[in-house]
Write a structure and sequence with these properties.
The chain is mainly β. It has 4 domains: 90 residues, no CATH class; 146 residues, no CATH class; 130 residues; 183 residues, Jelly Rolls (Sandwich). Helix content is 10%, strand content 38%. The strands form 5 sheets. Strands 4, 5, 6, 7, 8, 9, 10, 11, 12, 13 and 14 form an 11-stranded mixed sheet that branches. Strands 15, 16, 17, 18, 19, 20, 21, 22, 23 and 24 form a 10-stranded mixed sheet that branches. A hairpin with a 2-residue loop joins strand 20 and strand 21.
């Protein structure tokens, strides 16, 4: 065979490969395809499709074909019809006037549900997760043992947060998880009944097992399992598991032979869900009130708590809730301390109050809300039955009588607040830098946050120099609440002092957190500070330099507290520059801080 013949054969093989690739190309759902919609409509009705004019009213069961077509506003939204067939197949289309010849307008008298933008993008384009990297909380209940958890085959990335006997729900914090990461969980039954249940929160979303309810509001994990012999309500019905989540009531049962131990496992990929066409605009509300109260949606009563015990939390469903609907909780405290804990699920996303659990505020949506007659997230709900254990603190009131909490559906507090000029180096100048109110920053709590920035010091100075300062009283010193917190540079040094308030002890000495080593002059230094409940820490270039546990709660920053970058009480325009000043609405871990420094 000569060279020309070989070349012709290779060209033919190449052309065959290109043609085959085009034929079998997987639908990407990134552009409008009238033919695909018409084909899908005909497939839905089979031989009877002639009775359904798909050219006028396209019933689409594969919502991906609608990616980017229907629009995001109310003029042409994505709509859904819930089919009454046993297969529970849902149909989708555009709810406004038809804009293409072959349909996308329902033209039907059937009742439709108009999907919110969040859900519409999820079930059509589904691009919100594929490029995401997020922290994760994994929850595992196992009778008897959870023996091993691997992340892409690596068991070293899993950090136990709460791990005890089989009667405890175990929780694990896992950082920087990519979409599609493979997770495998191995469990062991050492005798008698055996089973396990899992769920996880990642990228602001809740993922649960099937057959656990909440199909309208949560993502259902697409998984494979071994030694799965059905479902069992035994552990939920007998209330044997401490702080078991309501979405984990039905367990995968492990085969129960006469010989033990018996092993089971579950494997899944992060963000991978079973068909999410069951989800609607419904929301599931999780609520605890001490003592009584009612719930209103856009001013209309939808739930009343008066007959339940004061120390019992509940959950309930509200159908077809639109964007920005006003959800209001009007409560009554009949005596002693009172409080309210609230969370809700919508379109797979979990919205909660701020949590004191390490890292949790980085995995869930933190509700933006207003309150009346409450005095902060200080109520201890540990005595509440069926406790909302993902809400470690509730809004507290000491007022006997009315108190309330109000939020707009879908509104959450941003993950970070960044100084507007953070893309450039800025000089700290006395009385020339901006002043904000603490409430303008939308940071949940000054005792569960982080701050990072680049710091450049060109000289030492004879007096104290301030970098930033939060004050409840708009004063420098020396009363409780004057510094909540503030950061200074020592005189004749480049050491840092971080103060959260002033304690009058030992002849009025300041109590704070100080670094022992000075920062090198004329070099960038990456500064990170974390506030984790009562512990305050300072990092320089990814290394821990100072830490202090105050043992008592830090003085809270009130909404009207003044926030300065370079306060008015110190000459801060002597050789200090900062860049990328960012406040995080959660506590950064040491690993995250090191990764940020490397970048």
């Amino acid at each position: 065979m000569n060279f020309k013949s070989i070349l012709i054969i290779l060209i033919c093989i190449f052309l065959f490969y290109i043609i085959n690739l085009a034929i079998n190309k997987k639908e990407s759902f990134t552009s409008f395809s009238p033919d695909k919609i018409l084909e899908n409509c005909k497939d839905n009705f089979g031989k009877d499709y002639k009775n359904q004019d798909c050219n006028k009213s396209a019933f689409v069961s594969e919502p991906g074909y609608l990616c980017g077509i229907c629009g995001d506003d109310s003029k042409n939204p994505v709509t859904m019809i819930r089919n009454s067939k046993e297969d529970k197949l849902n149909y989708y289309g555009c709810g406004g006037t038809k804009i293409y010849n072959n349909g996308l307008s329902w033209n039907t008298n059937k009742e439709t549900i108009t999907l919110n933008k969040l859900l519409a993008e999820k079930i059509t384009c589904n691009n919100t997760n594929k490029e995401s990297i997020s922290n994760m909380y994994l929850y595992v209940c196992a009778d008897d043992l959870c023996t091993k958890i691997t992340i892409d085959g690596n068991s070293n990335r899993v950090t136990p947060v709460n791990r005890g006997s089989w009667k405890n729900m175990n929780s694990y914090f896992i950082e920087n998880i990519k979409y599609g990461t493979e997770v495998e969980i191995l469990v062991e039954n050492t005798g008698g009944n055996g089973g396990f249940c899992i769920s996880y929160i990642w990228n602001k979303q809740l993922y649960i097992l099937d057959n656990n309810g909440f199909q309208n509001t949560a993502n259902i994990i697409n998984y494979t399992s071994k030694n799965n012999v059905g479902w069992d309500l035994y552990w939920y019905n007998t209330n044997q598991i401490t702080n078991l989540f309501p979405w984990m009531h039905n367990w995968i049962k492990i085969d129960n032979p006469s010989n033990f131990p018996k092993y089971g496992s579950i494997k899944f990929k992060i963000g991978d869900t079973q068909k999410n066409g069951f989800m609607t605009n419904d929301i599931t509300v999780f609520l605890g009130i001490d003592d009584n109260g009612s719930v209103l949606l856009n001013g209309n009563p939808i739930y009343n708590k008066s007959k339940q015990e004061w120390n019992k939390s509940i959950f309930f469903n509200i159908p077809n809730v639109k964007d920005n609907a006003k959800l209001e909780f009007k409560c009554i405290n009949t005596g002693g301390p009172g409080g309210i804990g609230v969370a809700y699920l919508r379109s797979g996303y979990l919205f909660t109050l701020p949590s004191s659990v390490a890292g949790f505020n980085s995995v869930a949506n933190i509700m933006k809300y207003t309150q009346k007659n409450c005095n902060g997230l200080t109520y201890d709900p540990s005595s509440i039955k069926n406790n909302l254990s993902f809400l470690t603190s509730w809004e507290n009131t000491s007022v006997v009588g009315d108190f309330s909490l109000t939020t707009n559906i879908g509104e959450s507090i941003p993950d970070t607040w960044t100084y507007p000029k953070s893309n450039k180096w800025m000089i700290i100048e006395q009385n020339k830098n901006p002043i904000y109110k603490w409430k303008d920053l939308n940071i949940s709590s000054n005792s569960n946050m982080s701050i990072s920035f680049l710091l450049y010091i060109s000289n030492t100075y004879n007096n104290w120099r301030n970098i930033f300062h939060i004050s409840n009283n708009n004063n420098d010193c020396c009363n409780i609440g004057d510094r909540v917190p503030g950061l200074w540079i020592y005189p004749k040094s480049t050491r840092l002092l971080l103060v959260n308030d002033i304690k009058m002890i030992n002849n009025n000495k300041q109590v704070g957190v100080s670094t022992n080593d000075g920062i090198r002059l004329n070099r960038d230094c990456f500064i990170t500070m974390t506030w984790s409940n009562t512990t305050v820490s300072i990092y320089e270039n990814g290394l821990l330099k100072a830490s202090r546990d105050y043992k008592l709660p830090l003085i809270a920053a009130i909404p009207e507290a003044s926030f300065y970058i370079g306060d008015p009480w110190y000459k801060a325009n002597e050789g200090i520059q900062i860049k990328d000043f960012t406040i995080y609405n959660y506590v950064l871990s040491q690993r995250q801080i090191k990764d940020m420094y490397k970048k």
